[in-house]
Design a protein that fits this description.
With 423 residues, this protein is an alpha+beta fold. Among the domains are: 4-123, Beta-Lactamase, CATH 3.30.450; 255-417, Heat Shock Protein 90. It has helices spanning 4-24, 57-60, 66-79, 125-214, 221-252, 262-272, 274-280, 296-312, 331-335, 385-395; strands at residues 28-33, 38-43, 83-92, 95-106, 114-124, 258-261, 283-286, 291-294, 321-328, 346-353, 399-405, 409-417. Helix 4 (125-214) packs antiparallel against helix 5, helix 5 runs parallel beside helix 10 (385-395) and helix 6 (262-272) packs across helix 8.
Length: 423
């Protein structure tokens, strides 16, 4: 039996507890002493405490709460301040749930300390699952919105790309039409150059020769000089037209690429210069030359022009020496030249002479049409030969460049693909 004094104290304790709990609005609580004896509890505590004869908190607490309750009461007892811990996992009737405990100190007129333990279910496994599902649905919605945004951006990019492709296609079609027109004009020029322009020149040359022969010894020296000039200028004009015709044919050539033995082509060209080679005492040294896919007539023109140059620009201090050699171009070197296709095989032909050479500053200029580095009176020509060489090499998908040494000679590098590309 409790004394009236104890009963009064407990009554006061109950009023204090009720006052605190009203401010917290919690569903379940227990009042315990410092020795863990339960003095009072209210609400549905079945989730947190097991029923039984004992009134000891630690014996009634479910397994997942015993340590946490002991620890929490100890902390509040030491500090005198409330303590709360959430996210504690319990298994009740086969279901997982999450709870929180809050311990608040009481200060009744007693030497023994009392505590209110407020129990609260924060989340069941089903609630947690629902929350995760909702979060996933929200994340999925964001992903869908992002995908829709990306799709819209992609559509805009595709539309812009299609517009550019249409513009580019139209530009290429226009360029193709212009190219076809240019080729047609070149064909007309070739026809005019071969017939309409050359025929009058042939007549001028013929009549000048007839006058020179028929009136030999009868013309005044001045008149004979004029006649000789007419003949020379007509012949030069005829050669110029022929060279222009040759360079235009490279652009519009419909000749097929076939297996071509470069050494056989060179031997054929050398026969055309037999007399000049003998006259100048020139020496030719020819190494191994490859068999490639090429247009034989164009390769013959290429060798013809290079050999003609080597025999024309000779030094008066030494006999001409012309050397030809070749090698397969290594892939590493192919990659260093932007105009070459790294996937194709190439041969480099070296055409070297010991002539007068030229200033290296003009290494590019020599391949420009009508560009001359020497006076025509000393070295006759039209200034088209090397330009035609470059046209032929480019037409074959290759490169040509010169390495001159003033007054010592020149090395021409000709790079040609081993096989014709059908792309």
């Amino acid at each position: 039996m409790m004394s009236e004094e104890q009963t009064g104290k407990l009554s006061g304790l109950g009023k204090l507890v009720d006052s605190i709990l009203r401010t917290h609005n919690v569903p379940a609580y227990a009042v315990v002493s410092q020795s863990f004896e339960i003095v009072q509890f209210r609400g549905s505590t079945g989730l947190f405490l097991e029923s039984g004869d004992s009134r000891n908190l630690l014996k009634m607490a479910r397994p997942g709460l015993k340590f946490e309750l002991r620890n929490a009461i100890h902390k509040v007892s030491q500090s005198g301040k409330p303590f709360k811990k959430s996210g504690l996992k319990l298994v009740y009737k086969g279901c997982s749930c999450y709870v929180s405990i809050e311990v608040l100190p009481l200060k009744p007129d007693s030497h023994e300390k009392y505590f209110i333990i407020i129990f609260e279910e924060t989340m069941t496994s089903a609630t947690l699952r629902d929350k995760k599902v909702k979060q996933l649905e929200a994340d999925l919605m964001i992903v869908r919105e992002d995908m829709n945004s990306l799709l819209e951006e992609q559509e805009i990019v595709n539309e812009e790309l299609e517009r550019r492709v249409r513009e580019r296609t139209a530009a290429l079609q226009e360029a193709n039409r212009s190219l076809q027109q240019s080729n047609s004009e070149l064909e007309q020029f070739a026809y005019v150059a071969s017939h309409d322009l050359q025929e009058p020149l042939r007549k001028i040359i013929t009549y000048a020769d007839m006058l020179s022969t028929g009136l030999s010894g009868k013309l005044a020296r001045e008149a004979q000089g004029y006649l000789d000039k007419i003949s020379r200028c007509s012949q030069r004009m005829q050669q110029l037209i022929q060279d222009l015709l040759d360079i235009s044919r490279v652009d519009i050539s419909k000749e097929k690429f076939v297996k071509t033995d470069l050494k056989a082509i060179l031997e054929d060209v050398v026969q055309d210069f037999d007399h000049l080679i003998s006259e100048k005492g020139a020496q030719l040294r020819v190494g191994l030359l490859p068999v490639i896919e090429a247009v034989p007539a164009q390769v013959k023109q290429l060798f013809h022009n290079l050999l003609s140059n080597a025999l024309k620009f000779t030094s008066s201090s030494r006999k001409p020496l012309i050397e030809l050699s070749s090698r397969q171009l290594p892939k590493m070197e192919t990659g260093k030249r932007p105009s070459l296709d790294k996937t194709r095989a190439y041969y480099e032909i070296l055409f070297k002479d010991n002539g007068i050479g030229f200033n290296p500053a003009f290494a590019e200029q020599v391949f420009v049409i009508f560009q001359r580095l020497h006076p025509k009176e000393k070295f006759p020509g039209t200034g088209i030969g090397l330009a035609l060489c470059k046209k032929i090499v480019v037409n074959h998908g290759g490169e040509i460049w010169a390495e001159p040494e003033d007054k010592k000679g020149t090395v021409f590098h000709i790079v040609l693909p081993a096989a014709f590309s059908h792309t």
